[in-house]
Amino acid sequence: MEQAQMPGCYRHPGVETGVRCTRCERPICHACMVDAAVGFQCPECVRDGSGTGHSRTANQPRTIAGGRITAGHPHLVTQVLIGLNLLIFLLGRLNPALIDETVLIGFAFDPDLGRVVGVADGEWYRLVTSMFLHQEVWHIAGNMLLLWLLGGTLEEELGRVRYLTLYLLSGLAGSAFTYLIAAENQGSLGASGAIYGLLGATVVLVRRLNRDMRPIMALVVINLVITFAWDGIAWEAHIGGLIAGVILAYAMVNGPRERRALLQGAACALVLGLTLATVVLRTAALT
């Protein structure tokens, strides 16, 4: 006799579960279940206070990555990041010197500024500031479109803190990889490293939830083709961010629940450590 298939979690349809909310009876997976006085409840019943009177003392509902589920404005961090990128883009258009002062560059003499500039000259902040710079309308439009399409779901599934950590560390890894490989006097800017980190993280998340992989893999292929076919694109930032995003996301949504925080912390430390080591070694080589 064929074994009956268990229902999928109402928040993560691809994850089978035999547990149901004691209040609304919706199927919930281990990442969504919240301990109650009797059995488990779903995040919505806990958030709305519609449980059996014990919801006030129940554990805080968590995302699949262990982050807090926030009521209202589920895409707040994504919206803030988009707004920040747009604001800096407008400031750069009004004051081009802003880009010269903050763009990622290894070590070079800048005739506009009349001095030597670059990360190797002690301007390490360029690794971060360049992540929010864009010069062309098509550049920022493409990055912000991907940020909107990918960021919302990741923010909901990972939680705000983990999502922001993923974005920043992926972008920083992309900057470090560009600094390592690109010519020392070649300028680089854009949020692409961080965006490709979100792209890699989405692949991991879709796989974890057992959803159809074809749409996200098609998006990855299209973006990689553009990366290597279009002259002038800093492919190093794309690849560095993509690899970092995959590593971080895998640690965030996999592994035993009891050791989840330890695994996530170790992955973040690994990516940050490799990033810093790359920057230090490249700086030593240039100076």
TrEMBL record:
It is found in: Membrane. This is Rhomboid family intramembrane serine protease. The keyword Transcription regulation does not apply. The keyword Protein transport does not apply. Belongs to the peptidase S54 family. It is a multi-pass membrane protein. Coiled coil: none annotated. It comes from Streptomyces lavendulocolor.
